[in-house]
Amino acid sequence: MKWNNWIRQFHRWVSIAFTATVIANFVAMGMGEPPSWVVYAPLLPLFLLLFTGLYMFVLPYATKWRSARSVSGKA
Predict the structure, then answer these.
(1) What's residue 1's pLDDT?
(2) Residue 48 domain flag
(3) Domain range for residue 38?
(4) Computed from CA positions of residues 61, 67, 71, 74, in that sequence, does the dihedral angle turn out positive or negative?
(5) Are 42 and 26 in contact (CB under 8 A)?
């Protein structure tokens, strides 16, 4: 499996984990004052989503830049 495909698959699975932690957070808040670890649980998947999402956002631009650089270097 290519590196880019692995990042995309990882991003999908982390998004499911993030959604589950947010739902658990709302359920815990509905039951009263939740413990702090429940409140902060969505932050880890959120930061992982941030980094993988930024990587996937920059990837087309980096590919374009690298292909333009290699073409200009051969001429």
Answers:
(1) 60
(2) yes
(3) 3-69
(4) positive
(5) no
* CB-based contact 53:47 (threshold 8 Å): no
Q: Is residue 63 part of a domain?
A: yes
Is 75 within the bounds of a domain? no
Mean pLDDT of 3-27: 96
**pTM for the predicted model, two decimal places:** 0.79
Nearest 5°: CA angle at 50, between 44 and 56? Answer: 135
pLDDT in tens, 16-68: 999 999 999 999 999 999 999 999 999 999 999 999 999 999 998 887 887 87
Residue 74 within a domain: no
- Residues contacting 4, CB < 8 A, separation 6+: 56, 59
The three-class DSSP label of residue 34 is: coil
How many domains does one find in the chain?
A: 1
List the one residue out of 36, 48, 42, 45 whose CA is nearest residue 21.
Answer: 42
